[in-house]
Amino acid sequence: MKLKWMGLSLGLLLLPKVQAAEVPASDTIPQETPAKVQITYDDPRDPFEGFNRAMSDFNYLYLDRYLYRPVAHGYNDYIPMPAKTGINNFVQNLEEPSSLVNNVLQGKWGWAANAGGRFTINTTVGLLGVIDVADMMGMSRKQDEFNEVLGYYGVPNGPYFMAPFAGPYVVRELASDWVDGLYFPLSELTMWQTIVKWGLKNLHSRASAIDQERLVDNALDPYAFVKDAYLQHMDYKVYDGNVPQKQDDDELLEQYMQELE
User: Fold this and answer.
1) How far, in Å, CA of 127 to CA of 125, rounded?
2) What is the distance, to the nearest Å, from the Cα of residue 143 to the centroid of all Cα atoms in its chain?
3) What percentage of the chain reaches a pLDDT higher than 70?
4) Domains: count for the chain
5) Could you tell me the residue range of the domain that residue 170 belongs to?
6) Half-sphere exposure of 162 (CA within 13 A, CB side)
7) Is residue 126 domain-resident?
8) Quick one: pLDDT at residue 30?
């Protein structure tokens, strides 16, 4: 975002030094007109930034402040930890079969077997997934979405998009989320059951983010802070935490200078 101010501060400094006796009666002091503020958005990852910022303000300053945040704090403060953990385990267990398929599509056979084993153990011994017995056995949760499969094969994120009510997405994610619902048991859920599952999952995620509220509230540009954090999170998921390091400007300049020698 670029702000251009011209001449206003200089005029304000000079005007107090002009004495009335020195100004002819027929003359008038020229009035400085404030320069116009020109705002441009130049992030290639975010071509809809004007719209996205408006939606971000609506989501965070109104929906989150007066609805999502109070509900998340109430859930976090008054629901016992075993109940919260059990609800989240149950919801996450429903996604293990789709994670199995998505890991197979990426050739990650170990993680595919892990997802299948977790679903079998937790659905049976773990009481439909309420108790994460598999995690106690050393089988940690790692759930891949079809969005990550596309990213693994080089499909770019696409434009960043702030969805009303739902929050940040990238276009690749918006276009592929429905695929994960094609696998059992998600495919067996009714529309209302799917909505309840989505609500419980996002409620737990929102409650888990309470400690990060201060970071967003104190950021110089909360919108840019959330956008950068989300895009980094997407890369982290696609690369399983091993995100390739990008060359910074100094390294590129050094290479350029070496080519000139």
Assistant:
1) 6
2) 17
3) 79
4) 1
5) 49-238
6) 20
7) yes
8) 56
**What is the rounded distance in angstroms from the CA atom of residue 144 to the CA atom of residue 18?**
70
The pLDDT of 11-29, averaged and rounded, is 41
**Residue 36 pLDDT level (bands cut at 50, 70, 90):** low
DSSP state of 130: T
Q: Is residue 9 part of a domain?
A: no
CB 23 within 8 A of CB 29: yes
Say if 12 falls within a structural domain.
no
Distance in angstroms between the alpha carbons of the first and the last residue of the chain: 36
What is the distance between the alpha carbons of residues 200 and 80, in angstroms, rounded to a whole number? 15
Per DSSP, helices labelled H in the chain are 8-14, 49-57, 69-78, 81-93, 96-105, 109-124, 133-136, 146-152, 171-176, 191-208, 213-217, 222-238, 249-260
What value does the mean pLDDT take over residues 161-190?
96
Q: Quick one: tokens of 183? A: 């696998």
Residues 159-165 have a mean pLDDT of 96
Tens-place pLDDT, residues 77-129 = 999 999 999 999 999 999 999 999 999 999 999 999 999 999 999 999 999 99
Q: Token pair 């990650």 is at which residue?
A: 108
Q: Kindly report, residue by residue over 167-176, the tens digit of the pLDDT.
A: 999 999 999 9
Q: 182-191: long-range contacts at Cβ-Cβ below 8 A with a sequence spacing of 24 or more?
A: 182/98, 183/97, 183/98, 183/101, 184/97, 185/94, 185/97, 186/94, 186/95, 186/97, 186/98, 189/94
Q: Which two tokens stand for residue 117?
A: 């084993």
Residue 68 domain-assigned (yes or no): yes
